[in-house]
Amino acid sequence: MTFSRQRLRRTLIALSAATALATTPTAFAWSHLGHWLVGELAQPLLTPAAQQQVAQLLQGEPNPTLAGVASWADELRGSDAGLARKTAKWHYVDLDPERCDYQPPRDCPDGNCVIAAIDAQRQILADVAQPPEVRRDALKFLVHFIGDVHQPLHAGARHMAEGGDDAGGNKYQVSLRTAVAPPSYSAKRAAPGAPTPTNLHSVWDYYELESAILSPEKYANQLRQGGVAPISPEALGSPAVWAVESCKGIDAQGLYPRDEDGQWQHKLGGAYLDAKRPYAEAQIRTAAERLAAVLNQTLK
């Protein structure tokens, strides 16, 4: 009996850990690849003044480029758990895809959402009176959060019939048939040759871009061919505008799949990934252009 109870306890602990990974709204938005692409595409668009300040602020980093620090805000979970907890809500905002209207008291209480985080970190980066290490971290946060707000499921959460929301697709379970190996945090749950049990949020964080089966460098070159160019301050918009735009893309692009009868689909495969990838890639290019414009304005 004691052995059975111990096994049950270990099983419950494992299930709790797996559930936490599956439902965490900040789970590796755009994955390392997606954030790397945003930084890589943005770097050549920087003005000489911004390039110089970025180089100064990132001096001493293992990879002192925008791409090199783009995933830092996610990696905090392994290097600084306290800061990761403090900033967990800064990666997303849960707008209702049926309205996509942003009301700060409701959607961003106490400034804890990606919209307010981008504004706050930009102010810190612009303040030359701040210590260099504080401005450096603000730059790293900005690179990451501007990527996050362009991942549609970091800008919207569909409300469920039983109340509450689905945490940006984290609670929308799917069975995904793909040749792409699962990320390390969920690899144990995937059986070789069988559909991968995952959720819609992870599909967009990870599988959508990974399924292009390209090296990061080749992917960046391909996206440049699709057009990545500087944008004017007048065309930049605000983080709130970007979030609303991403939220509207959830329904406009059919991220939540339905069958011919209008029923929600929970079995996905390569056809879904291939059909939605152009939209994901367009969001990556837009995020890069806006990131560069923000840094060019802030680091004059």
Characterization of the model:
- The protein is mainly alpha-helical and 300 residues long.
- It has one domain (28-157, 165-298): P1 Nuclease, CATH 1.10.575.
- The chain has 14 helices and 3 strands.
- The chain has helices spanning 2-23, 31-42, 48-57, 66-69, 72-79, 81-86, 104-107, 114-126, 132-148, 200-210, 216-225, 233-236, 239-252, 270-298; strands spanning 173-176, 196-199, 267-268.
- It has a 3-stranded mixed beta sheet with strand order 2-1-3.
- α10 crosses α14.
- The longest helix has 29 residues, at 270-298.
- It is globular and about 55 Å long.
- The N and C termini lie far apart (69 Å).
- The relative contact order is 0.17.
- Residues 1-27 have low confidence and may be disordered.
- Keywords: Disulfide bond, Endonuclease, Glycoprotein, Hydrolase, Metal-binding, Nuclease, Signal.
- Pfam families: S1-P1_nuclease.
- Residues 1-29 form the signal peptide.
- This is S1/P1 nuclease.
- It comes from Pelomonas cellulosilytica.
Low-confidence stretches: 1-27
What form results from the Cα inertia axes? globular
| Alpha-beta classification | mainly alpha
Helical content stands at: 40-55%
What would the CATH topology be?
P1 Nuclease
CATH top level class name: Mainly Alpha
SSE layout and pairing:
Blueprint: H1 2-23, H2 31-42, H3 48-57, H4 66-69, H5 72-79, H6 81-86, H7 104-107, H8 114-126, H9 132-148, E1 173-176, E2 196-199, H10 200-210, H11 216-225, H12 233-236, H13 239-252, E3 267-268, H14 270-298
Parallel strand pairs: 1-3
Antiparallel strand pairs: 1-2
